[in-house]
Write a structure and sequence with these properties.
The complex is a heterodimer of chains A (about 240) and B (about 375).
Chain A (H helix, E strand, L loop, with lengths): L5 E10 L2 E11 L4 E6 L5 H8 L7 E6 L2 E2 L4 H7 E4 L11 H11 L4 H14 L15 H13 L5 E5 L7 H16 L3 E6 L10 E6 L2 E6 L1 H8 L4 H12 L1
Parallel strand pairs in A: 3-8, 3-9, 6-7, 7-8
Antiparallel strand pairs in A: 1-2, 1-4, 4-5, 9-10
Chain B lengths: L1 H16 L1 H21 L7 E6 L5 H12 L3 E7 L5 H6 L5 E5 L3 H6 L4 E7 L4 H21 L5 E4 L26 H32 L1 H7 L4 H31 L7 H25 L3 H19 L11 H7 L3 H15 L3 H25 L6
Parallel strand pairs in B: 1-2, 1-3, 4-5
Antiparallel strand pairs in B: 3-4
Helix pairs in contact in B: 1-9, 2-7, 2-9, 3-6, 7-9, 7-10, 7-11, 7-13, 9-10, 10-11, 10-13, 10-14, 13-14
Classes of the chains: A alpha/beta (about 240), B alpha/beta (about 375).
């Protein structure tokens, strides 16, 4: 296995005449919290879908946990977690049933799964709501639950596609604490967002503009090089120059 | 294995918790049997009969009694002349009329032909013809019981004309001696219900996951496409089976529809047809991404053809030749043939192997094509 958790080289994806992802090259180190920033439609979700094996790259190459996305997607699936933009849990199932379902899908042994479910419910303070339908949970709790479920099988790399969209600032805060916990435990986190303040929480970021990587590095370096105060200022400048 | 069990459990919970859909699924076959059983009747009951008897005598009275005792006819008017008949037909007060020739008994006594003219309202040709046959049967019955020479019933050649041709026919309806239309529609109804449950529900449940986004989570998991498909559709096989059983039991209890042949064979063929319908459902869901489109596609591709082209309601023989050819590729057509064969004729696989083979080949091809079209990737 290579040293890097994710390694993309000239990764490109076109839909007809439209180039959603345009020759992006970046890498993510193990245990890193890596931010994928960009406006809506900049190509973040398409990039994640290529890396998770949902979409085939049109050209270029990428490796996740050492496996090639074009040829070894089955191996990649064993070692990644994914939380899509859209809610990935079943509304009509209870909290516990949802966790059990994914535990079964990732083939976690029964006893082990029981332990993990109790720990997970405990950590999310959801023990009392364990047998309630997920439908009845507030959005913030749903998102935290979805994240925990994506981590249930201890993946090497976890992809979070706009996990904090639409949740309140307190839950966003708690969410980022969970992201750090996961990174500390050794999971590499690739997270997309269009909240620029969240970029400050990442070890390194890329800013995507119209399918291309417009900036790539640590938030501090990027701000210093561009002579701006915040990532937000940098983003606005990059987006303007592209338009 | 663990994963598949989990998926099956999940799908079962979806079905059981969606009370409204579940209620529809359970009530659908039950209501359909009642609806089809009572509304789409081609058999003849309570026919409103007008009698034109210019000179009643012992024979005409005996024949009129015979009609009244038949249970099929209800005499609504006895007239002296034909003049008032048109009004009765126009008001729909009468559906069929019989007109005795004058001097009826006298003619018979003298060895002259005594004629009965039968007039039917042929607005609906099928019912019109059906009534003619019944009238004929009653008259023939009378003749058989009191054989008299020189008398014959007269039935027009076409229901609209009033030709006077002597016929003497004997009808024996094989396999459905009482000409119950329930016997005819139940096999077709099974195909119809199975199509709804299997094709439509499968297509809907698969596209629902695409719509809500949960399908993505399943696709990035290590699940194989076959596991996802089996996990999604297997519960609907069970529901399909329950529906078939419900239709059969209800048809038996309410309409006394027989099952002359082997029940296991019938259920086995039902399973084969369920596989065909499920595959069509999977195929539809692979090509569509919203429940609404999937539903329209399922209705157009499966339900309407099942209703119209399978011989369920409209006989295939009376379709234009082009449609007859098209009906060959309708899986329902073969299932209806098989089900009728087993239920009404009591025939076994020795006679039905060809139809079974066709249905089996369809199931195989569709299963392979549909599972292939279900991609693990989004593109």
């Amino acid at each position: 296995m290579s040293e890097l958790a994710i390694e993309a080289k000239d990764l490109t994806r076109t839909f007809g005449a439209f180039t959603a992802v345009d020759h992006i090259t970046f890498d993510v180190k193990p245990g890193e919290v890596f931010g994928f920033l960009g406006a809506n439609g900049a190509g973040k979700t398409t990039a994640i879908r290529i890396l998770t094996g949902l979409l085939r790259p049109s050209s270029g190459s990428a490796k996740v946990a050492g496996f090639d996305v074009a040829t070894q997607s089955e191996s990649i699936k064993q070692v990644i977690g994914y939380m899509s933009q859209r809610f990935s849990l079943y509304d009509d199932l209870t909290v516990r049933e949802n966790i059990q379902l994914y535990g079964g899908i990732y083939d976690i042994p029964r006893d082990e799964l029981r332990d993990r479910i109790e720990r997970l419910l405990d950590r999310l303070a959801l023990s009392k709501a364990a047998d309630d339908a997920v439908r009845s949970l507030p959005l913030g709790w749903k998102q935290k639950l979805a994240f925990s479920v994506a981590l249930l099988h201890n993946p090497k790399v976890v992809f979070l596609d706009e996990p904090t969209g639409g949740v309140d600032p307190i839950v966003r805060r708690q969410f980022w604490e969970m992201i750090y916990d996961a990174a500390h435990a050794g999971t590499t986190v690739l997270v997309t967002t269009h909240y620029m303040d969240e970029a400050e929480y990442c070890n390194r970021i890329t800013i995507m503009v119209a399918g291309k990587i417009a900036a790539y590095g640590t938030p501090a370096d990027l701000k210093r090089d561009a002579g701006v105060k915040s990532v937000d200022d940098l983003f606005v400048r990059l987006a303007r120059s592209a338009a | 294995m663990n994963a598949l069990l989990g998926l099956l459990l999940k799908e079962t919970r979806h079905i059981l918790r969606d009370r409204r859909t579940l209620a529809v699924l359970i009530l659908l076959p039950i209501v359909q049997v009642i609806l089809f059983g009572y509304s789409i009747r081609t058999d003849v009951k309570d026919v409103r009969l007008a009698v034109v008897d210019p000179a009643p005598d012992a024979t005409t009275l005996a024949i009129r009694d015979r009609f009244n005792a038949s249970g099929t006819f209800k005499t609504v008017a006895v007239l002296r002349s034909e003049a008032e008949l048109d009004a009765l037909f126009q008001r729909d007060a009468a559906q069929v009329a019989i007109e005795f020739a004058p001097r009826f008994a006298d003619r018979i006594a003298h060895g002259e032909p005594a004629q009965i003219l039968v007039i039917t309202d042929a607005t609906e040709p099928n019912s019109g013809t059906g009534r003619l046959n019944y009238v004929n049967a009653v008259v023939q019955g009378y003749l058989a019981d009191s054989p008299m020479s020189g008398m014959s019933s007269v039935v027009p050649t076409s229901p609209t004309s009033r030709g006077r041709i002597r016929i003497e026919s004997r009808v024996r309806a094989r396999f459905n001696p009482t000409l119950e239309s329930a016997n005819l529609f139940v096999p077709g109804l099974m195909a119809f219900v199975l199509t709804i449950v299997s094709a439509l529900m499968t297509a809907l449940s698969l596209t629902r996951e695409k719509e809500t986004g949960t399908m993505e989570a399943l696709l990035v998991s290590p699940l194989r496409p076959a596991q996802i498909i089996v996990g999604k559709v297997a519960p609907y096989v069970v529901i399909g089976f329950i529906s078939v059983a419900a239709v059969l039991i209800e048809a038996r209890l309410v309409f006394h529809v027989p099952i002359e042949g082997s029940l296991p064979l019938l259920l086995g063929e039902g399973l084969l047809y369920i596989l065909v319908a499920l595959s069509i459902g999977i195929l539809i869901s692979a090509r569509t991404s919203s429940q609404r489109v999937a539903m329209l596609a399922a209705i157009l591709a499966t339900m309407l053809p099942t209703l119209l082209l399978s011989g369920f309601i409209f006989p295939i023989e009376s379709m234009p030749e082009a449609l007859q050819v098209v009906s060959n590729i309708m899986p329902a057509r073969w299932f209806v043939l098989i089900a009728r064969g087993i239920m009404l004729k009591g025939i076994g696989i020795a006679y039905l192997w060809r139809e079974t083979l066709i249905l089996g080949a369809m199931a195989l091809v569709l299963l392979v094509v549909s599972t292939r079209s279900f991609h693990v990737r989004l593109d």
